[in-house]
Amino acid sequence: MQKNSNLENVLRGVAITAIILFFMFPILWIFLMSFQTNETILRVPPSPFFEPTLTNYRSLISGKLEGSTATLEIAFMSNLYNSLFLSVTSVTVGLILGVPAAYAFARLKFRGSEDIAFTLLSFRFAPPLLVLLPLTIYFQQIGLADTYGGLIWVYQLIVLPLILWIVRGYFEDIPADIEYAYRIAGHSFWATFRKIALPLAGPGIAAAGLLAFIFAWNNFIFALVLASADKQPVTVGALAFITASGINYGQIAAGIMLSIAPTFALALYAQRYLVEGLSLGAVKG
Amino acid sequence: MSDVMLDLNSVDKFYGSKGQGVHAVCNISMKVMRGEIIALLGSSGCGKTSMLRMVAGFEAVSRGKISIGDREIHALRPVERNVAMAFEGYSLYPTVTVRDNIAFALKSSKFSATDVAVKVDEIAAMLEISTILDKYPSSISGGQQQRASLARALIRDADLYLLDEPMGQLEPQLRTLLRGRIKAYIKERGLTAILVTHDQTEANALADRIAVMEDGELQQFASPEDIKKSPANIFTGTFVGEPPMNVFPARASISEETVCLRLNENIDLSYPADAFSAELRASLAEMGDIVLGVRPYAVQRRDTGSLATVVVNQWLGDQSHIATNFAGGSLVLVEHDRTQLSEDEQIAIYLEPSDIHIFNSKTGMAISHGARLIG
Ligand SMILES: Nc1ncnc2c1ncn2[C@@H]1O[C@H](COP(=O)(O)OP(=O)(O)OP(=O)(O)O)[C@@H](O)[C@H]1O
Ligand SMILES: [Mg+2]
Fold first, then answer.
1. Which residues neighbour A115 within 8 Å (Cβ) at sequence distance 6 or greater?
2. Which of A102, A226, A270, B197 has the highest count of CB atoms within 10 angstroms of its CB?
3. Which CATH number does the domain housing residue B190 bear?
């Protein structure tokens, strides 16, 4: 028995290591690449041993890509800033609009509420390109093309349905009687939402916000079509790395490292919060 | 102010659409007086919780009116009804301690923090939960959660207290102890309460009046004594009382000198005519088919009489429950000493006319109690 469970432990360890290697190896390799020049990256056979250099990061941060023949001006840092700004504001707007809406859909069963909720979800089914062309024309007419406001609005197509449907599920999982118990004691609907529903759905709201952030961060097509160079996020800006004079892998790797850093940090932070929130929340009985 | 605290007027509750949904509460009318404790008794799923939730305002009233005091409240929001409720599923707030759960019920504006603390400690001591006040609901037992939930309701200053099975999770000793304390608490303050319970001892001990419900309908609403002595119909007769009332279909034949109640298997219970009131004899003669009921502790053993066969004889420590085969059915009798009867033994049964309840065999409604026509 003891032996068997030992064997199980070993097997489990091996499996976990394999999975971690599988998923983490590319990231690790890119991390290593970001400290190398094209020569060391492209040597055959590849080797993990090299003399680390910070030139890739330096040129990204200063905005000057040194190709083999010429120096190219890129706006990587401002792309990064755009990504951060667009994602944070979109998710914030999405949460402000989506969480109360999710609560309403979960608690107030009104005529047509299912239809409205489903319509919102169906935004996720539509191919973005289909929407984009007419949208571009409308945006140009009403002066929203190439503005942060316009982009944030369009980002709601991605963010809002996600937040709405995830958070709604969490609200529905809270027994209604817990809220009734609070309301019958003389607290208003609004107070009940703030003091009871919000804290209980906290982990769900955090998860939805995190997921929405990642989706917003990774969005490519909306910003490609609707924004000019100075408003573009990294996903679009990264196109500039592929130049006629060649591809600088070290700089791309450094670019990738910089652009995944915020989501990575957020995921690490939120994970701690999620675990804590979920184990505290246990609604018993 | 009137003395009626709660007035339910022809209240109905449908879940789902009116035609095909569940008709959980059917046309219930009842008045609860100020300062009364009412026990709501009925089998599982008969609509007790639905009724409380309509009074509290968590379920819309499908039809009818509800008033508390002089106010019609069935259209008001829960906040405006001034009702306190202990929920069947406790429904404590998981994110705060038991102390805060109870304190949240007192809207902070009315009491100072120290007043709230004093009140919480007082009620926690009464319900024996002082030691768990600083724990979170997820880390206390079901019975402790139940008492925390009860405390949260009782601490309020409400017109009406709705307690949905407030002590179902507790052991009999604690239940008995708390029952006394809760009754004293409610009576001292002149509060009005409706208490759902499956424990008839609790209903008898706590309640001024008992409302018996079945299938969403109010079967009887009367004092515990009245319900025992004069059950309104077969359901109340057999539902209230432990062990339940024995019932047998019977056919009455009335002559000048005798009243004969013929049970199945041709067992005749014959009585002199004057043991039954004249009015009762008249209606029995008219009706013929009836249902006869007798409480287990009223069944007597005599040297001669109708024969019954013992099936089991259980000594419960303070009384014997003897189950017998009688008139094609089962008859249970209760005796207070340790009866020496073995299986298959024959005993002679005698039923005193004053212990006999007679019901209409078609409607199930009571016709007579103790050989006197009702009404
Ligand atoms: N939200 C609901 N939707 C549909 N049907 C319901 C709902 N709540 C209760 N019912 C139905 O209404 C009837 C009465 O339910 P209720 O909860 O009032 O019973 P109860 O007397 O409190 O039972 P118990 O003693 O088991 O608590 C049941 O048939 C139940 O299935
Ligand atoms: Mg119930």
1. none
2. A102
3. 3.40.50.300
Taking the alpha carbons at both ends of chain B, their separation in whole angstroms is: 32
**Domain ranges within chain A, ordered by starting residue:** 6-73, 76-284
**Do residue B11 and residue B152 come from a single domain?**
yes
Q: Min CA distance, A203 vs chain B (Å)?
A: 12
Closest partner residue to A184 (CB to CB) among B56, B94, B106 is: B56
Going residue by residue through chain A (285 aa), what tens digit of pLDDT does each one get? 455 678 899 999 999 999 999 999 999 989 999 998 888 888 888 777 888 888 888 888 887 766 666 676 777 888 888 899 999 999 999 999 999 999 999 988 778 888 888 888 887 777 878 888 888 889 889 988 888 999 999 899 889 998 998 899 889 988 999 999 998 888 888 889 998 999 888 888 888 888 899 889 988 888 888 888 788 888 888 777 776 667 788 888 888 898 888 888 888 887 766 665 454 444 433
B181 and B294 share one domain? no
Cα dihedral A155, A157, A162, A164 sign: positive
Residue B146 and residue A210: Cα distance in Å, rounded? 37
Give the strand pairing for B209-214 and B217-222. Answer: antiparallel
Distance CA B216, CA B45 (A): 8
CA distances from B323 to B309, B310, B327, B329, B346 (A): 9, 6, 13, 10, 12
Beta-strand pair B63-68/B71-72: antiparallel
Do B225 and B354 lie in one domain? The reply is no
Integer Cα distance of A275 and B10 in angstroms: 51
Structure token pair of residue B6: 């709660």
- Residue B258 structural domain: 246-373
CA-to-CA distance for B58 and A181, rounded, in angstroms?
10
Give yes or no for residue B60 CB within 6 A of ligand 1.
no
pLDDT digits (tens, 9 = 90+) for B142-151: 999 999 999 9
Q: Mark whether B274 and B162 lie in a shared domain.
A: no
Q: How far does CA B255 lie from the centroid of its chain?
A: 39
Residue matched to tokens 């304190």: B103
Ligand 1 atom at shortest distance from the alpha carbon of B43: 25
The verdict on A108 touching B (C-beta cutoff 8 Å) is: no
Domain boundary (B232, B258, B282) is at B232
Would you call A188 and B58 a contact, using CB atoms and an 8 Å cutoff? Answer: no
Residue B78 DSSP label: G
Phi, psi of A258 (to 5 degrees): -65, -35
Tell whether B45 lies on the interface with A, counting CB pairs under 8 A. Answer: no
Could you tell me if A179 and A236 are in contact, meaning their C-beta atoms sit under 8 angstroms apart? Answer: no
Question: CA–CA separation, B331 vs B181, rounded Å?
Answer: 38
Check whether residue B141 and residue B116 sit in a common domain.
yes
